[in-house]
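quick one, two chains, predict together pls
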Amino acid sequence: MIDQPLKLRETIAYGLTGLGLFIGIWTLLSVSGLVPHQFLPAPLDVIARFFALLTTPFAGATLPQHLASSLQRYVCGMSLAAAVGIPLGLLMGWFRLLDDVVSPIFEGLRFIAPIAWVPFAALWFGTGIGGPVMIIFAGAFPPCLINAYRGARFVDPHLIEASQMLGTGHLRTILEVLLPASVPSIVAGLRVAAGLGWQSLVGAELIVAAAGVGFMMVQAQANVSTPTVMAGMIAIGIAGMLIDVLLRQGEAAILRRRGLQA
Amino acid sequence: MGSIRFDRVNKIFETTKAGVKALDDINLEIGEKEFVAIVGPSGCGKTTCLRIVAGFERPTSGSVSVNGKPVSGPGPDRAVVFQHFALFPWKTVRENIELGLRNKNLAKDRRGELIAGALNLMNLESHADAFPHQLSGGMQQRVAIARAYVLDPEVLLMDEPFGALDAQTRVMMQEELVRLARVNPRTVLFITHSVEEAVYLADRVAVMTRRPGRIKEMIDVKAIRTAENWNQFQRIEDVMDQDSFIHLRTHIWKSLREEKPEDRH
């Protein structure tokens, strides 16, 4: 317990050192003129641009507004992926036949990068909310399904036997034994899905959307406003980190309730 | 109601190409409300016997029937108490006990009555809303026994139920089970590797050989228990002090010792 605060302080110190070095080299490269300003904007320009974008609209909206429309699509796509992937994964983990039927298709499809769906996403669902939602779905669905499936397959066999000897039917076993037993695995899957979904969304917005952080970046690129592009990248990074932190907190809370360590 | 019959049961596990023969021609009849313990060296197939009655495994040949009906799968007429309790960690004590009753589609009031009875039987009233991980091993196994008893099963299958408990808790649970068997007798198939436990608890003890498991000897403990009036003692150590107990225990020990350790490859 005595050296714990020290450890934390060290961790923070190392982290700040890394960040400082990174920004230092970046500043050096851009200020020295080694790399032209158009290619690599200076950190101060980017930060100034970032704060300006919080209130000044660019490409039809401020950065928070772009972020809000990105998040809206993101939540839709993630919810859909979880709503389809988790039940299907659990069912595949319980019914061998379904596993045998679905697995080959799924194993083939999951190696297609979400971005590869862009042409069909635009064709089928348009460039408003539908198209990007489908891209996020393509990114977030596999980890949702795989982790629910693994969770269901690796349930302590004694718990399944206990459930059977108590005369529990299929539906109740899935809902009251398989699902709760798989929660840690499912939550871990959701974290992976959240990361992949967020990356897919921004990728998709570069191409199909009419608003959103990705869209803002494409417009900035067209205007050769590299600080705006960088500001968008920072917003994406921060939002992604926050989503992960939130999910991690949720994961830890769930494990704690079970008497397990996070 | 509640008889178990093994009829020429063989079990081969197909884990290797040749297969591993686990059980060799098991014939055993357990009468209604009889308590039979199976002891044997580890890996002899005693747990497999129980798992076949439970419906978790099928015999390779031969058959097992309960009340004359062949076992075809697991069900609440044959409640199982597992060595590692197998309680649902996300359900409270009450919810763990309730699941089997909900499966029977009993009305809520009736379920409440039965749960109250089971909690009372196992002295669990004050822990009804605790989660399993908040309880000691002994308490968890009480919950598992309550969960089995509340189903009012015809037979109770206990697979080394006290094997994961510390020595003191184990003794308490053994005494408790004797009390339970007097209040509410059931047909019990009890698996253990503890000779004392088997002699203390069972009406009859079946001694098994090393793999492939066969029943080499059947010992009638009940006759001796009745003749020597062990039931007059409250505590296990008093029973274990009796010459008749020591004699039986030594006899079974010798029988087990004749089983040479498994060849190492």
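The CA atoms of residues 129 and 162 of chain B lie 23 Å apart.
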